[in-house]
């Protein structure tokens, strides 16, 4: 069992470690096992440290963040602006006649829940996204806020000596 603490705060997390067993096998040199407790305490530490609060704007330097790499590439490819959001949400078009760049603030509103299952694991995250128009004087003007609830299953397999994963958005 492993535990991850938030930086500078070694008080216990709000979880209790449950015992788990590792199947008895002896045909490999190395076995790795991670408990659900390890993932729960990691999630708690990252949430407490604010790691799930992210601002995405044109000048953001989040390319090294694996989770948001695809999203950032999509934002820069499509040049997301108030014009794009205005075509989807008519209220934005009424407010912003001139196209402005958009800034997104993503925030986890609860500690993400990570559950281990037989051949996969599930991540449940509750959050909110606030969308801002960035005005010519660099002032952010709030356009709208939306709540987000995501439940994702991730299955990992080894195929041709490569770790492969499949992602399924459950909700």
Model description:
Helix content is 23%, strand content 33%. It has helices at 36-49, 66-78, 82-88, 90-95, and strands at residues 54-56, 102-108, 113-116, 120-134, 140-159, 162-169. The two termini are 30 Å apart. The chain contains 4 helices and 6 strands. Strands 1, 2, 3, 4, 5 and 6 form a 6-stranded antiparallel β-sheet that branches. A hairpin with a 3-residue loop joins strand 3 and strand 4 (120-134).
Give me the secondary-structure topology:
Layout: H1 36-49, E1 54-56, H2 66-78, H3 82-88, H4 90-95, E2 102-108, E3 113-116, E4 120-134, E5 140-159, E6 162-169
Throw out a few tags for this protein.
six-stranded antiparallel beta sheet; 4 helices; single chain; alpha+beta; 171 residues; elongated
Short description:
23% of the residues lie in helices and 33% in strands. With 171 residues, the chain is of the alpha+beta class.
Low-confidence segments, given as residue ranges, are 60-70
SS elements, strand count:
6
Distance between the termini: 30 Å
Biggest sheet layout: 6 strands, antiparallel
Name the shape in a single word: elongated
Residue share in helices? 10-25%
Total helical elements: 4
Report Rg. Answer: 20 Å
Oligomeric state: single chain
């Amino acid at each position: 069992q492993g535990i991850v603490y938030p930086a500078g705060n070694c008080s216990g997390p709000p979880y209790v470690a449950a015992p788990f067993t590792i199947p008895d096998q002896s045909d490999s040199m190395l076995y790795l096992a991670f408990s659900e407790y390890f993932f729960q305490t990691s999630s708690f530490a990252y949430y407490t440290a604010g790691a799930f609060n992210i601002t995405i704007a044109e000048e953001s330097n989040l390319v090294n963040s694996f989770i948001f790499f695809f999203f950032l590439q999509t934002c820069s490819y499509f040049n997301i602006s108030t014009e794009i959001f205005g075509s989807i949400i008519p209220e934005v078009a009424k407010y912003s006649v001139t196209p402005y760049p958009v800034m997104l603030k993503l925030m986890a509103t609860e500690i993400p829940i990570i559950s281990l299952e037989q051949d996969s694991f599930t991540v449940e995250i509750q959050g909110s996204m606030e969308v801002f128009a960035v005005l010519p004087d660099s002032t952010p003007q709030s356009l709208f806020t939306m709540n987000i609830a995501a439940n994702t299953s991730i299955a990992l397999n080894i195929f041709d000596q490569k770790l492969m994963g499949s992602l399924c958005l459950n909700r």
